[in-house]
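Ticket 4471: requesting a sanity check on a complex prediction with zinc ion. Repro inputs:
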Amino acid sequence: MYCNYCGKSIQDDANVCAYCGTRVGGSIARKRLVRPREGRKVAGVCLGMAEYFDLDVTLVRVVWLIMAFMTGVGFLGYVIAWIVMPEEPYMLAAQATTGQQVTNP
Ligand SMILES: [Zn+2]
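Returned structure tokens:
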């Protein structure tokens, strides 16, 4: 397939263009505020937000922690987000890992 951004030919199952770094492929399906099953630290809230807003997950965690300690709202917000944010469907989790492992047909 081809990158929508730079037009170069890339791997069919690539998630990120190797030339310009633009997200391709599963990015549209993943544009939902969910808690990913892979790579989460606690409940996946920060990771889900980072993916949704296309931010660095470390940055999201740092900002969230600062908010939590400065205002106390962060802790409550995290619990609320934990409850309201749906878990990533298994279908999407499988799609996201196709780059690392061979999936069975
Ligand atoms: Zn590209």
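Notes from triage: Residues 3, 5-6, 8, 17, 19-20, 22 surround zinc ion (CB under 6 Å). Leaving this open until the requester confirms.
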